Hints:
158 residues; mainly alpha; 0% strand
Amino acid sequence: MERWLLYLHVASVLGFMLVHGASVQVMWKLRWEPDPERSLHLFDPLSDVRPLRALLVAVIVTGLASGWVGGWWRQWWPWLSLVLLGVIAWAMYRYGGGFYGLIEGAATDAVAARGGPDAAAKQAAFEVARRAWHPIGMTVVGLGGVAVILWLMVFKPI
């Protein structure tokens, strides 16, 4: 049973990362898209986050069950992994989601202002928003955090 739980845990992580790939691609595409109107169309693939959330729940449930069946909860590394996952999830929600809101607001304002007296200022604000640090930071946090969790899982330091 322990191997099956571990298998399901790793499979759910892979599924989560696969489904999350669309969000990552959109975030990076938004950073490089100079047209605010085209940027707004990039939000279309992000409409349904339910599969992403369901897979995150599967990652957590299978990880908790694996830790219980494997008797690893007496060690510190599963607890640190859980804390890291929580920090990554919080950062992604706060700053990753914040980036989408920042871009959407700036793009909407720039599109609405086209041809008006403040069009240049709204376009400049959009340029600043799309060059924000969020895609780089969230990539480092996401990949780096998952790499640390993977290291903890594989090497199980005491």
